[in-house]
């Protein structure tokens, strides 16, 4: 049903908007960390790396919005890698809320990749249909 949470176009938009939000948040935190030179922000690993990460996530958001299948998959791999590194840095004691958020991000991106595939399949089916007798 168009506009519902199961609509492929809506799933793609949801994932793209989420990626744009995450890109903006990472970039903002990176800029704040660079401007304030805070030890707390340095301890969290915020800085130029956050800005670069934010830019990369924004690019993934752009291509996800265009219903490509490859970028959500790359974003999934990026967030899985980031989750593994975060868990290793935490010494096996993960932040449960942060872990749940990451799982939500990954699930949303997987749904977007599947939705992009569904849209492509529909386009191919419709391309073969002719309205001419």
* C-alpha geometry: elongated
Secondary-structure element string? HHHHH
Radius of gyration: 18 Å
Span from first to last CA?
29 Å
Low-confidence stretches: none
Mean pLDDT: 85
Strand content range: under 5%
What is the number of strand segments?
0
Number of H- or I-type helical stretches = 5
Q: Portion of residues in helices?
A: over 70%
Alpha-beta content class: mainly alpha
- How would a crystallographer describe the biggest sheet? none
Brief descriptors of the model:
mainly alpha; 133 residues; single chain
What does this structure look like?
The chain has 133 residues and is mainly alpha-helical. Helix content is 78%, strand content 0%. It is built from five helices and no strands. The chain is elongated. The two termini are 29 Å apart.
């Amino acid at each position: 049903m168009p506009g519902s949470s199961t609509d492929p176009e809506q799933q793609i938009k949801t994932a793209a908007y989420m990626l744009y939000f995450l890109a903006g948040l990472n970039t903002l935190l990176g800029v704040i960390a660079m401007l304030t030179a805070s030890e707390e922000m340095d301890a969290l690993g915020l800085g130029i790396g956050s800005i670069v990460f934010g830019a990369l996530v924004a690019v993934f958001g752009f291509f996800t919005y265009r219903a490509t299948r490859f970028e959500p998959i790359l974003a999934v791999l990026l967030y899985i890698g980031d989750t593994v590194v975060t868990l290793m840095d935490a010494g096996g004691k993960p932040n449960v809320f942060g872990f749940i958020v990451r799982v939500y991000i990954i699930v949303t991106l997987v749904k977007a990749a599947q939705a992009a595939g569904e849209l492509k399949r529909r386009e191919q089916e419709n391309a073969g249909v002719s309205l001419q007798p």
